[in-house]
Every structure is written in structure tokens, then in C-alpha cells.
Amino acid sequence: MATTSAGILLYRLGGTGEVSVLVAHMGGPFWAAKDEGAWSIPKGEYGEDESALDAARREFREELGVDAPDVAYAELGTFAYSSGKRVTVFVADGAAFTETEFVYGEFEMEWPPRSGQTQSFPEVDRIEWMPVGRARARLVKGQRPALDRLEELLAAAR
Fold first, then answer.
1. 56-93 tens-digit pLDDT
2. Which domain of life is it from (predicted)?
3. Is 118 a member of any domain?
4. Residue 151 CA: distances (Å) to CA of 16, 63, 65, 76, 136
5. Which residues, 6+ apart, have CB-to-CB distance to 121 below 8 Å?
6. E strand or H helix that includes residue 134
7. pLDDT above 90 for 158
8. Beta strand ranges found along 41-131 (DSSP E)
9. What per-residue confidence (pLDDT) applies to 1?
10. How many domains, in total, are found in the chain?
11. Which CATH number is 89's domain given?
12. Does 61 fall in a domain?
């Protein structure tokens, strides 16, 4: 069965109407020197015992160390990666999200490879508000369609 994940994509509109989104650079040694394709919507896996939105809010907290904003969320869609993994993305206006103190969650892995040593690394090493065009090139490929859908919904609302 395919892995299922859920995440939150916050957006805000600039004074010129430019749309920015909050995305996270993935942590750990594999992603450290990468930029293009090395960013992600804060998200994570969940099972049948949890709703996708509850999982998205939990993962936001686990990855960034702060609660997701207490605002209305809409399901943007479920997007499939080439690997078969599926991610359900929830979107919300994050204009009022002003948090600056993040405490990134950590994961452990063997590092250096085949060394037998385990090290801890942050799941995320930085977050950034960036224009959708810049975010598109930086996000992992499987999440890029979420940006297209966001732009479609915002255009339809104008």
C-alpha cells in the first residue's frame, strides 16, 4: 500500500498581489548542500486512526516546533509522487502567522554511511516565505502541482 502523508501549505498575498508560500528546507546531510528540489511543505505520514487534517496539524507542530495557525483550512487536493506516495495538502491564509522561534524536530540515521554510528539531524533546517515561482523550482517534484492548484483557486476567487 502506498504511503500517505498530509501537510499544510500556508500562503499570503503581498501588496502587489504576489502570492508567497511558507516552505521548509529539508534537514540532514543529504539535503545540506542542495537547494532546487530540496524544499517541502511541512508534512508527514499518517495512518487510518487519524484524519488527514489532524495529521497535517500534528506534523506542522513536530517539524517546526510551533502550532499551525488557528485558521480555517481547505483541502487543496491529494497529489501523487512518482514513487506512489500520496500527500494530501491543506491550505490556509497565513498572513497573520508571525512565528519566528522554531524548534525543528529531529530524526536519527546512520552517519557517515556504513559507519555504524547514529547521529541526529533536524527534519527541517530552515523555513522561508517565498514567491510561488521561486518555490516551484525549490519544492520536491511531487509537491509542485499543489502550487498550481493554489494559484488556480486564488485566480478563481479574484
1. 999 999 999 999 999 999 999 999 998 889 999 999 99
2. Bacteria
3. no
4. 15, 25, 28, 11, 11
5. 27, 28, 29, 106, 107, 108, 109, 111
6. helix 132-138
7. no
8. 43-45, 74-80, 86-93, 106-110, 118-122, 124-131
9. 62
10. 1
11. 3.90.79.10
12. yes
Q: Is residue 46 part of a domain?
A: yes
Q: In this structure, are strands 118-122 and 4-13 parallel, antiparallel, or unpaired?
A: unpaired
Task: Work out whether strand 4-13 and strand 86-93 pair parallel, antiparallel, or are unpaired.
Answer: parallel
Do 46 and 55 touch, CB atoms closer than 8 A? yes
Place of cell 556504513: 114
Q: Is residue 141 packed enough to be buried (19+ CB in 10 Å), middle (13-18) or exposed (0-12)? A: exposed
Domain extent at residue 96: 4-24+35-103+126-157
Contact 37, 140 (CB under 8 A): yes
* Residue 143 is assigned to a structural domain of this protein: yes
State pLDDT tens for residues 87-134: 999 999 999 998 778 889 999 999 999 999 999 999 999 999 999 999
Single-letter residue type at 130 = M
Measure the N-to-C terminal CA separation of the chain; round to a whole number of Å.
39
Distance CA 48, CA 119 (A): 31
Write out the three cell numbers for 63: 517539524
What is the rounded distance in angstroms from the CA atom of residue 116 to the CA atom of residue 151?
A: 46
User: What is the chain's mean pLDDT, rounded?
Assistant: 93
